[in-house]
Amino acid sequence: MKKQLLGATITLVIAGMCSTAWATAGDTAAWSYSAPTGPQNWGELKSEYSLCSSGKTQSPIDIRDVIKTDAQTLNVAYQPSTAKVSNNGHTIQVMPVDAGGITLESGHYSFVQMHFHTPSEEMIQGRTYPLDAHLVHRNPAGELAVVALLFEEGAHNPTLEPILAAMPKHAGGSAQLDTVDIAQLLPANLNAYFYMGSLTTPPCTEGVRWNVLTTAVQLSRAQLEAFQALYPMNARPVQPLNERSVHVGG
Ligand SMILES: [Zn+2]
Predict the structure, then answer these.
(1) Which of 28, 128, 208, 240 could make a disulfide contact with 89, Cβ separation 3.0–4.6 Å?
(2) Which PANTHER family match (predicted)?
């Protein structure tokens, strides 16, 4: 498969440990996407992971019945930033220095990191997409808001390309990107499904504000295969909706 570098200067860095917003170094081998440490057993692997099985507001979900509202809008104010691209053993993660953030009704959330799942964790009316990106944001109180961006197979995605080209092949590896511009990844229509959910990886912490963009963007088959060459399947199955409702603006 071909990989193109579109003007991005990439410096390979050897990093001994991975880090994510919620996973601490050293626990990366404790859970996976296949038995016996797969999603069905996450809740039993560690007491800290118990919400993965006992939680009632877990993510992802299959978005089916939605309540229309005027109020839910997603205000984004992203800016280009340098970024670190790391392979943390579960996914590829992009961590900008200062990429701006989003404003929800509940306030402002700063962009922390973005990572990918294949296939998409979110389902829309029972449909799975080949890839999703989770844009993770945090407010000063430490509360999380995630924007989920769905990808469908189609045209080459030039914004994604420098990230894909920089992906370290081995867990623990990282690389530096001169610039990543999150805004360029987004569709023109920022209408989103909103619901309260959780982290989709252990410890499955709840209270996460999910904003699933209703409009998908495209990537080429070669780009999808480049990610899947590293992570063929890293998606948690959909979880019961229980008492929750999903709202959509517009
Ligand atoms: Zn995710």
Answers:
(1) 28
(2) CARBONIC ANHYDRASE
Residue 96 and residue 100: Cα distance in Å, rounded?
A: 9
207 CA to centre of own chain:
16
b or e along 78-97 (b: 16 or more beta carbons within 10 Å of the residue's beta carbon)?
Answer: bebbebbbbbbbbbbbbbbe
What is the architecture of the domain spanning 57-248? Roll (3.10)
**Positions of the chain with pLDDT lower than 50, given as ranges:** 1-26, 28-29
pLDDT given for residue 23 in this prediction? 44
Give the pLDDT of residue 148: 98
Assigned token pair, 46: 């560690």
Neighbouring CB atoms inside 10 A of 212's CB total 27
Q: Which residue, 21, 36, 1, is CA-closest to 221?
A: 1
Distance 67 CA to ligand 1 centre (A): 24
Q: Are 15 and 173 in contact (CB under 8 A)?
A: yes
Amino acid 29: pLDDT: 46
User: Distance from the CA of 146 to the center of ligand 1, in angstroms?
Assistant: 8
Residue with tokens 């404003």: 103
**Domain spans in the chain, listed from the N-terminal domain onward:** 57-248
> What residues are annotated to the active site?
90
Residue 212 CA to ligand 1 center (angstroms) comes to 12
Q: Tokens 């449909």 map to which residue?
A: 127
